[in-house]
Amino acid sequence: MKNDTNTYRLNPNSISQLFKLCEQPDEAEPASQPDYERMRHLRDLLADVPPLNGNALTGVPDILRHLHHTLPRMFGRSVRQILHDPLTSVAELRSVKDHAKILVSKAQTESEHEAAGIIYYAAIAHALVRHDIRITRHSYRQLVDSFAALLTGEWIPQDLKDLFGQARTVCTRHGIEDQDSAQDSDTV
């Protein structure tokens, strides 16, 4: 190795250390891969335009209803736009929640399942924050726990984390009110 110009005057020990440095990113990569997949699926779902709810399709001829379900929507607001619009109706939020629930059940990978779950809880959170309405059968206590868990996801965009934090506050307040009313009914 004396005259070998490819080693740039490195001894075998130094070359071995360089190879070890090159191997470390590969070992760390699999840990970040699931987060990347979750972020990618969530980004795609937020950009998607959800289907119209059943009420909007009432009275539409069968052929148009079939086309609506089989062809992608060309016009309409994306899930992200719906979740960020303070004027989004409760009916639209229920539609997004129901659509996300279907996506959760059809998910083929864990990252697809988790990304659809984020959309599901984001619709619930938006209804709580903007309309003070719970569009789920989950109790306020269950929602507080779910939103707390979602706040720890490093791959979840900050705007959704902010929404989950606000919804958690609303649920906490309602949970306290529910406990107070339950205690009042016990004393009567």
Features:
single chain; 188 residues; mainly alpha; disordered C terminus
What would a concise description of this structure say?
The protein is about 70% helix and about 0% strand. The chain has helices spanning about 10-45, 60-70, 80-85, 90-105, 110-130, 140-150, 160-185.
General description of the model:
70% of the residues lie in helices and 0% in strands. The protein is mainly alpha-helical and 188 residues long. α4 (90-106) packs antiparallel against α5 (110-131). It is globular and about 70 Å long.
Annotate the secondary structure layout.
Layout: H1 12-47, H2 62-70, H3 79-84, H4 90-106, H5 110-131, H6 140-150, H7 158-187
SSE succession: HHHHHHH
Mean pLDDT: 76
How many beta-strand elements? 0
| Low-pLDDT residue spans | 24-31, 70-75, 183-188
